[in-house]
Amino acid sequence: MKKLKRSQRLVDMTHFLLEKPHELLPLSLFADRYGSAKSSISEDLAIIKEVFEGEGMGELQTLAGAAGGVKFIPRMPADEASSFIAELCQMLEQSDRILPGGYLYMSDLLGQPAIMEKAGKLIATAFYGVEIDAVMTVETKGIPLAYATAGQLGLPVILVRRDHKVTEGSAVSINYVSGSHKSIHTMSLSRRALREKSKVLIVDDFMKMGGTIRGMVDLLGEFGAQVAGVGVLVESEVADVKDRLLHDYVSLVSLGEVDARERIISAHPGNYFAGRAQ
């Protein structure tokens, strides 16, 4: 890269850090990239750190020593998170989302990268400081949210199949009970997809009784893996929470009444802020 003015270098360094969240970047990388002394790079990073943390964009961690460097940890400040969740609730309360049978249309939200990017950042923020090796979801509608979350964490996505694909190689399959319909389904995961004893964050777009997510938890057990956490975009309120198959999770939106006859939808913030310091 050609020699840049300091102002140009700051812009490029900021973009570089934003593109590589949770990745440890040695100072020598920046020194070589800009042809500058490490002392100058350190001064630049101090400026970027002040802006990132002052604006609530995230944390810029500095690790000393020969193997050290800097690592950017994205975060979403509480006021921005609250505003975004309120917008999600308003969008979900649109009456034209009600489908026959009382189902809710959400595909348009899941297909908007800007919305998924914010939702992914919010879920990633909820699990700040938790050791995670991969993000898992089940095909298909949860995929955009899983990739958005994984992008903020700098982690790979593990995709659970409902039908085993020959291109996946040998796989582990389990049966699970759908919490909403009490019917038996099958999910599978390629043996090559996940290392044993990995710590996995499960992400899904919608949860009612929690049967699908419970299935993913059981599937992880077959790999000797641990559940680092569970994040869902929307949870549906149930008459008796004791019937839910999962109780430890983070939700952005809680869906209340869906009245197909009156075409009324009630949505309010989920448990994201419950007992969580932002």
TrEMBL record:
Entry keyword set: DNA-binding, Transcription, Transcription regulation
GO molecular function list: DNA binding
Stored SUPFAM superfamilies: PRTase-like, Winged helix' DNA-binding domain
GO terms, biological process: negative regulation of DNA-templated transcription; negative regulation of purine nucleobase metabolic process
Keyword Transcription regulation: yes
Bacterial purine repressor N-terminal domain: residues covered: 5-74
Source domain of life: Bacteria
Residue span(s) of domain Phosphoribosyltransferase: 114-236
Assembly and interaction partners: Homodimer.
Similarity field: Belongs to the purine/pyrimidine phosphoribosyltransferase family. PurR subfamily.
PANTHER family named among the record's database cross-references: HYPOXANTHINE/GUANINE PHOSPHORIBOSYLTRANSFERASE, PUR OPERON REPRESSOR
Protein name (database record): Pur operon repressor
Organism from which the protein derives: Paenibacillus spiritus
